[in-house]
Specification:
Helices cover about 50% and strands about 5% of the residues. With about 500 residues, the chain is mainly alpha-helical. Among the domains are: about 140 residues, Arc Repressor Mutant, subunit A; about 80 residues; about 55 residues, Arc Repressor Mutant, subunit A. Helix 6 runs antiparallel to helix 7, helix 16 crosses helix 18 and helix 18 packs across helix 19. The radius of gyration is 33 Å and the shape is extended.
Amino acid sequence: MKLGQSQKQIQSTVITPQLQQAIKMLAMTHMEMSDLIAQELSENPLLEEIENEASDSDNESESDSEGDSEIDNDSGELTDTATHDMEKEAKDSSDEFDWEGYVNSFEDGAKAKIESNDGGNDEEGLSVLDQVSHKTMGLAEHLEWQIRMEDLSEEEINFALSVIGNLNRDGFLEEELETLITQSEISKEDAHKLLKLIQHLDPVGCATKNSKESLIVQARHLENQSMLLENIVRDHLEDLNRKNYDYLCKKFQCSIEDLKQTEMLISELHPRPGRLISDEETHYIVPDIYVKLMGDEYAVQINNDGIPPLKISQYYKSILTKSSSDKDSKDFIKEKLRSALWLLRSIENRSRTVEKVATAIVAYQQDFFRKGQNYMRPMILKDIAAEIGMHESTVSRVTTNKYMHTPLGIFELKYFFNTGVGSKEGNEGATGDSIKLKIKTLIESEDVRNPLSDERIVTLLGGNGITIARRTVAKYRDELGFLSSSKRKKT
């Protein structure tokens, strides 16, 4: 054994912060990209929006200079080509404001705005309404607002608020009423009156113990209330769910028409009324890709709305060529320039990669776009990765939380990835979603007096070249919300 020193040259991949940013941007949604660019524009003075893309040869020379403005990765200094371009641009541009003061304002963390010589400001004004923070009202706030509209004493309002404060998301009372009464200053009789009042506020049926009690309250609140409706809700919902019409008609001495009318009324009630009022914000989907039929071919277009074209500021480049500029200012600009160039490259790389993946998906799923959802082909990440020459993890990042607007509707990119369930004669099979649609079509078109059994559906699908187990059909049928054939049968 002997200790010693030796040198060894190896290659390894280093994940730099810039590379991490580029990878992270692949998984960003359209709205997240818009927010990121807006943030970078406010923090990096070297980034500017291109106000008029058609604006002539100036922009062309700008693009050329940006392409040449490379940074030496080893030294962190600008190359000779970049310095030459900056010197040329500096001669053509005028020094319209205090550059060093502006740089220092960014170094101090101030979010300064460029003002023209006449004192004008480029910042767009916000209306008063735009500055108001809108918050969706939750269940508790919704009920409290209604309670305060009633003519109640302070003690009654406090008790009502204690009841409302003990409601769960479904609208059910989690605390025992007797416990709340002992903690209040009102009588037991008044407490029950207030509870009944809360139960008939909007949404009707809150402040009850469970779904059955809530449905009974809602049934009594209907204009077309009846003892038949209340009795079925209280004791015979399971019989109604099983379609035991003969038993129910015999028990309540009613006609089948009255029973079906009652069934329709019950279907309009809400077993969890509290969920009708939600304080969760609405999340809007903004498609990242548009697919349009151009002649006989489907064309892919990336959605760039809200993602402005960017360029490197000519003014800040010119400061690097000034001998009067101090070293701190130049170092600051060099750092911001490196960051800006990385951002521009990352945006371009993301757009190019998303377009490649989307184009490959559209090409692979031609039958889906031309014939409908029943013709979706089984497709996995590996298929698209092999097509575009990228790793599966890259395809996975690109398809995360991104949506495609098509002539058939809006779909998440991951929707197009499905494994084949089964087929005959060595075919690639059908996707689970397409099989569900076929099952849905078969059941909806069946004879209600002789509904299709799961085994019969297996046979019909087999006639279309799809091999599937009966238990899989039963699983898909349950997920679609259809009862078994015995419960679907109508006389």
